[in-house]
UniProtKB/TrEMBL annotation:
This is AEC family transporter. PANTHER family: AUXIN EFFLUX CARRIER FAMILY PROTEIN, TRANSPORTER AUXIN EFFLUX CARRIER EC FAMILY. The chain crosses the membrane at residues 6-25, 32-52, 64-85, 97-119, 125-146, 167-189, 195-218, 230-250, 256-277, 289-310. Signal peptide: none annotated. The lineage of its organism: Bacteria, Pseudomonadati, Pseudomonadota, Alphaproteobacteria, Hyphomicrobiales.
Amino acid sequence: MIAIVGLISPFFGLIALGFGAGRIVRHPVDGLAWLNVFIIYIALPALFFQLLAKTPVEKLASPAFVTATTLATFVIFALGFALAMARSRGDIPAATVQGLASAYGNIGYMGPGLALVAIGPEAAVPVALIFCFDNTLHFVMAPLMMALGGDRRGTALQIAGGVLLRIFTHPFIIATIVGVTAAIFHVVLPDPVDRFLQLLANAAAPCALFAMGVTLALRPLKRVPPELSFIVPLKLVAHPIAVWLMLGAFGSFDPIWVQSAMLLASLPTATNVFVIAQQYGVWVERASASVLVTTVLSVGTVTLLLYLIASGAVPADPFP
């Protein structure tokens, strides 16, 4: 357990450092704009490209893995949505944000760096696949459910076009597509270009975690929403269990892939949930609280999960 704590503490330490800086140095949240541009459009895409371009292409084709992990995420979203609908008596937009808070983990900012350190470089491919398809799921579900809830920003064709545009212009997904293409054609970059991309990739996790901490500091927790009584257990406990069971139901997978999928599922609510809530003007303050509370609690739950994995308490196949 001490070794696990030592392994992941720098990641949560960077979030805490950003949080402390955000509380002490009271710059407005707009001051993060250029750092976020660097993280989202440059550093993290470089990391995804580096991970995938050097991966044997046969490892990238795993429809059963993608189906199992994406379906598990959808099941958690559906559970969160259903519970929220029952509490809100049919408020679809608010229930959609709560469903996303239950299922949309911080797989972009925290996922790659934490998985590569905790599990190893073999985690690169499952992390990239989960990131690509989970994000696609959320990009589809958010506008679709908001449209069903009455927020019809355009015709059905315009909504579908907007979803496709968001998917195929997202810098992470573009980097994933380019990286897979490079792997297929065995592209070898010149050494200076490779070193440059590696330098950018190395900066991705520290900058992303620091920016996340600052963002949390600038959105202080005013009250704990009662909906967290089901959002927290769904996101931090039920989601990794659902991924584990779903992978077991779909076949036998490399233990590294199972562990990587469970780790990503155990991550706290993504800051993008707050962005989506803000975009539609629904459940905004409570979405911010969900991100903060699940992030704080995930220090314990992620540590425990990694300890259970390392100790062999969680077998790769739940149905041997």
